[in-house]
Amino acid sequence: MTRSLSFFPILLLALLSAVVASLQIGSDLSLSRQLAIVTGTQAEEFADIMFSYAQLPRLVMALMVGAMLGLVGSLMQQLTQNALTSPLTLGTSSGAWLALIIVNVWFPELVGDHSALAAMAGAMLSLFLVIFIAGPKNMTGLPLVLSGMVVNILLGSVASAIILLNAEYAKNVFIWGAGDLTQNGWESVQWLLPRLSVSLLLLVFAPRILTLMRLGHQGAAARGLNVVPAFIVLMAVGLWLVAASITVVGVISFIGLLTPNIARALGARTPRFELTMSALLGALLLVVTDAAAQLLSQLTVDAIPSGTTAAAIGAPALLWFSRRKMKAQDQVSIKLPPSRDRLSALSLPALMLIVAGILCLTAVFVTDGHSWHVALPTAYQWELRWPRMLTALSAGVGLAIAGTVLQRLIYNPLASPDILGISAGATFALVGASVFLGMNIFAVGSVLAFAGSMLVLVVLLVLGRRHQFAPSSLILIGIALTALIDALVQFALAKGTQDSYSILTWLAGSTYRVTEGKAVFLFVGVAALFVFTLSTSRWLTLISAGRQFAAARGLNVPVSSALLLGTVALLCALVTATMGPVAFVGLLAPHMAVMLGAKQAKEQLLVASLVGAVVMLIADWVGQTVLFPAQIAAGTLVSVIGGSYFLFLLIRGRSR
Questions:
Q1: Pfam families this protein is in (predicted)?
Q2: Residues 181-240 pLDDT 10s
Q3: Burial class (CB in 10 A: 0-12, 13-18, 19+), 16
């Protein structure tokens, strides 16, 4: 306690210095003139007005929101006894974001008065979903964070689909996703301030409850605390504060994750001191982050939202946290559903017939929006359909192979190109080239995507080796990279140009804009890598039995692993560069293959590739027809299907 008290004056001095420095950015006023305006002097010149109605309210907003995010982050981490809990990792930010999009698109008359309530409802719904998936006993372990990540992907996919289907109504929500503190007066501050007043109740009543909860559920109950209602009430108050803040400034990640950990590192040991120090650190961190965003905006043509800079700072911090030693309960164990002992001789022919049948169905079974009918496509219709069919087929096969190789190489049934961030690396490279270099995202080559995937693979290998590629370490890396890329994407969308919609369409994982040349290139590339992987299936078989065993049998394990990992990166790059990121196929297809009895490496590769093709072809065809003439991207539907399957695995693992 003494150590934490000694840091309070330093924190206050640092916060005051940050406030003064922030007010000097882009202002022509002297410090004395600024002080005079703050103390009540009437604004006269244009510079005075800009200071009074733009800079000051922006600073106050940063202080308020930063303090609330830090306070709620500390509250959530103390309630769950989990240093990785935050509105970001619990999926509550995505729930609030989705609710705001729904209100803006379908209930615009409620936006003015009920946006905060809608965001609160979305955040609460996502939180209860995460707790149900992880289970009350896993609140202190990684399963809670993992469940939040999957819920984030699911809700994000639904939100993207709604925006794409209702683009004309959803333009004004883009800036929310980027997290922007820009103000044009004091109206937002006046609206938010009374809604944050409940935070005072937290500071008064929460410390005693949190102190009792540190004794454990049984110890707290023995001392008269009704644990479950107390948990729900405190979490609801915290979510209200987050929802109100998101309603005004949008999604700002990582503040609530970082500040409680910093507070504990500085010596905060009691609940009251941790809450207070986290609030101060949150205000300081967001003011500094916003100042950095303003400075970068002056150096560049585009205004950079504060949420983007917060993610750029927070993602490396989360990577650093991932290197820390995990607790025993953080080593996630997943068991697949019951499977056959061996692969039936009819399985491969049956899957091939299913793929052929879906291809025929896609070609001739169409709808005009009112009825379904069978019709041979005209030459023009065939030119439109076959590139999409070939792309979906190739993408499903490629991602299935990548997932199978990854799971066998690092002995991790949760390994998947999207969950581990490998696909995100390709996405980061392509979106970054579009945003910062002005390239057309549909024209950027696969080489750039391959470089992004390889960079992520290197990070995974370097950071994951310390924990023997445990699920906990690798998944946290994937979460950090995904959050960073989401911030970059939201920055691109917040610019409000036509490129924003192009990027969003591409991110949904659609075959809509794939040309004939790209479809053929993807097919040839995936086919070549498929043949290479099958020819090296013996490597996978030996490595799956153990690296020492493989080396004893004469296999050069480092070279073989490097070649196979490079194959994974190249497959992800080809698919991502052609149709955008597609989630969960690399997780779903290998699991389905094992459940069908494909236990050997070559069998699993063959069966998984066919399963991946079936999933992608069905998703692409359903997306084209179910809401005709509107279309849902195949990647969105696959995210919903694969995410639901992943949640099933988590729930099943908890029940066991």
A1: FecCD
A2: 888 888 889 989 998 999 998 888 899 988 888 887 778 788 888 877 888 888 888 888
A3: exposed
Task: Check for a shared fold between 2-321 and 365-655.
Answer: yes
Q: 432-446 as b/e, with b when 16 or more CB fall inside 10 Å?
A: bbbbeeeeebbebeb
Cα 428 to Cα 421: distance, rounded to the nearest angstrom? 10
Closest by CA to 277, choosing from 264, 288, 287, is 264
How far is the C-alpha of 552 from the C-alpha of 543, rounded, in Å? Answer: 11
| Cross-strand partners of 365 | 374
Which CATH architecture does the domain made up of 365-655 adopt? Orthogonal Bundle (1.10)
482: which residues sit within 8 A by CB, 6+ positions away? 149, 152, 421, 424
What's the one-letter identity of residue 209? I
Pairwise CA distance, residues 276 & 371, whole Å:
62
Domain ranges of the chain: 2-321, 365-655
Nearest to 155 by CA among 206, 119, 197: 119
pLDDT the model gives residue 329:
40
* 596-621 pLDDT, tens digit each: 888 888 999 999 999 999 999 998 88
565, 457 Cβ separation under 8 angstroms: yes
- Token readout for 316 is 């490396």
Model confidence at 88: pLDDT above 70: yes
Average pLDDT of 425-451? 75
CB 483 within 8 A of CB 494: no
Residue 534 pLDDT class (50, 70, 90 cuts): very high
- In 3-state terms, what secondary structure has residue 365? strand
What is the rounded CA–CA span in Å between residue 96 and residue 93? 5
Against a cut of 0.85, is the pTM above it? no
Tokens encoding 299: 């150096």
